[in-house]
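Researcher: I'd like a candidate sequence for this fold, 586 residues long. If you have to choose between options at a position, lean toward the conservative one.
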């Protein structure tokens, strides 16, 4: 790919790389082609034939291009996707582990990729160990034998070398070589040869928490780029990161764990077009992870039309992932999997799922993490109220959800995300969630009021992100562990002391203040979360003591002002953006 990119400015035209993966569907593949190659969005178009015609027409308009299809597991008709291959147009290269796929796809030239020669394997091994690293002679001899046991397989070589970084004890090197010799006996094909290498790299983590973090990535669909922050939230919810730490310390620890897995070459680092950091798990790494996790049931991104039948829900299951199956409409009445040990159920991004019966959760008493976000459910079943072991409930952007049953029994709950739902009132029993660390209620269809007296009971809150939900200054001030706050404030007579003093303890804040209560000005509309520290103030005539470290400030006033210093303190050294709106905006 890199070689072709270097040549692309001359004779080849555009070079694009698209991963096909084992979990193939025409619809998903069309989305990938549109996004990666053509920079188009087809998500609002559903007819595959029309989508194929649009893709074909767009590709025909390109005079020259090279399209690399990586990791093709089964043959398919290019015309069904919308890929047109012409002599003077689009050139197609595909990689696959199956010679039959090459033949059935009509490849003109088939090149078998051979294992790396022994010398190149050793160079790759040394490079992964560390640039310029000089090994003692006795260790180097054993290291060369270890590299030789990697059989010229690049992924296995990189994983094995990554697990040996910093090892200077000859006994440890000898032990690894012995384990490789034992595991390699009887292995025949290339895939069977690489798995022992990957498994040994996993075993060498020698840290159960790191291993659990690695295995967690296998719950995502194959070839998925996973947001680091999203994954770290799961690590926190699963108890893989000490809940007694501050939220900032938890995030630092989460990134540290992921960095260690990257350095061990078990995960790959990548970025999106905005430069945000993601991680990715190689498909063979994922397959190895699932092999060593017999208590996982992972059917993520498979385009299922119904949930697995009850016999597939084994009693010893620990984690189940059914995320990203777009065609599951409902869970049949009476469905009640007997999974007494199930701790994690990931059901997010099943957009047309409308209904879950009461019976579904009855035999899941150990459930700790439940993610139903981005589904079409309208009501949560009452049986949710009985999941007393639950530590995290994610319901964000269930845009049709109007009812959440009482939560008073869920006293172990630490994370609750109701953002983007359409609930009309705060769920009953919120005041009983005394272990809650994070509460999210952003983008609600209706402005809610938190009943007085609830917040002081939630004394362990570290993150309170509730958008334009109004809360009182006095109640917020009782939250001594709070680090992140997004809300609209009332009790404005106490505003200046709050803004100037309490905000010092906050790492992130997005605060809206509306003296008039009519939202006729544009200050609050300018509230866009582009900075960690933002304040929006509408109305008021007195000078406001905003936090000294505010980064964005939006102010709406009905009367002219002569100077910004007439409104706020002049010592705003961190201020990056300031907007002032004068007079009625309607």
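Model: Candidate sequence:
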């Amino acid at each position: 790919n890199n070689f072709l990119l270097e040549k692309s400015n001359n004779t080849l035209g555009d070079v694009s790389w698209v991963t096909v993966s084992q979990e193939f569907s025409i619809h998903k593949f069309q989305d990938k082609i549109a996004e990666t190659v053509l920079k188009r969005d087809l998500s609002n178009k559903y007819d595959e034939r029309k989508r194929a015609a649009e893709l074909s027409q767009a590709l025909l308009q390109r005079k020259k291009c090279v399209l690399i299809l990586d990791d093709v597991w089964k043959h398919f008709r290019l015309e069904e996707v919308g890929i047109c291959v012409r002599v003077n147009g689009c050139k197609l290269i595909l990689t696959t582990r199956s010679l039959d796929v090459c033949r059935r796809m009509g490849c003109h030239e088939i090149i078998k990729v051979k294992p790396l020669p022994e010398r190149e394997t050793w160079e790759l091994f040394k490079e992964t160990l560390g640039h310029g690293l000089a090994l003692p002679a006795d260790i180097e001899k054993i290291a060369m034998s270890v590299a030789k046991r990697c059989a010229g397989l690049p992924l296995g070589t990189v994983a094995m070398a990554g697990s040996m970084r910093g090892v200077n004890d000859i006994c440890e090197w000898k032990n690894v070589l012995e384990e490789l010799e034992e595991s390699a006996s009887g292995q025949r094909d290339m895939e069977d040869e690489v798995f022992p290498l990957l498994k040994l790299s996993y075993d060498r983590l020698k840290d159960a928490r790191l291993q659990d973090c690695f295995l967690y990535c296998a719950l995502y669909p194959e070839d998925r780029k996973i947001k680091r922050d999203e994954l770290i939230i799961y690590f926190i919810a699963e108890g893989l990161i000490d809940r007694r730490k501050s939220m900032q310390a938890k995030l630092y620890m989460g990134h540290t764990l992921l960095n260690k897995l990257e350095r061990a070459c078990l995960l790959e680092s990548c970025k999106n077009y905005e430069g945000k950091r993601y991680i990715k798990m190689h498909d063979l790494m994922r397959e190895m992870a699932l092999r060593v996790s017999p208590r996982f049931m992972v059917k993520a991104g498979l385009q299922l039309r119904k949930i697995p039948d009850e016999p597939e829900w084994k009693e010893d299951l620990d984690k189940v992932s059914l995320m990203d199956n777009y065609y599951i409409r409902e869970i049949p009445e009476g469905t009640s999997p007997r999974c007494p040990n199930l701790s994690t159920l990931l059901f997010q991004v099943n957009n047309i799922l409308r209904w879950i019966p009461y019976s579904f959760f009855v035999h899941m008493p150990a459930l700790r993490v439940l993610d139903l976000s981005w589904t079409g459910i309208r009501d949560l079943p009452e049986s949710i109220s009985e999941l007393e072991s639950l530590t995290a409930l994610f319901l964000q952007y269930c845009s049709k959800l109007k009812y959440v049953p009482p939560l008073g029994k869920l006293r172990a709950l630490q994370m609750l995300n109701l953002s983007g739902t359409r609930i009309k009132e705060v769920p009953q029993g919120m005041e009983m969630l005394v272990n809650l660390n994070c509460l999210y209620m952003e983008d609600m269809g209706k402005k809610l009021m938190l009943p007085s007296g609830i917040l002081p009971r939630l004394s362990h809150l570290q993150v309170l992100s509730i958008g334009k939900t109004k809360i009182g200054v006095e109640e917020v001030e009782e939250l001594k562990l709070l680090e992140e706050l997004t809300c609209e404030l009332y009790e404005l007579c106490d505003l200046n002391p709050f803004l100037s003093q309490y905000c010092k303890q906050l790492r992130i804040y997005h605060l809206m203040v509306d003296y008039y209560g009519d939202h006729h000005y544009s200050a609050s509309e300018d509230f866009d979360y582009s900075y960690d520290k933002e304040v929006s103030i509408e109305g008021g005539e007195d000078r406001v003591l905003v936090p000294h470290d505010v980064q964005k400030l939006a102010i709406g006033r009905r009367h002219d002002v002569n100077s910004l210093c007439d409104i706020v303190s002049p010592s705003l050294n961190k201020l990056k953006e300031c907007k002032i709106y004068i007079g009625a905006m309607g």
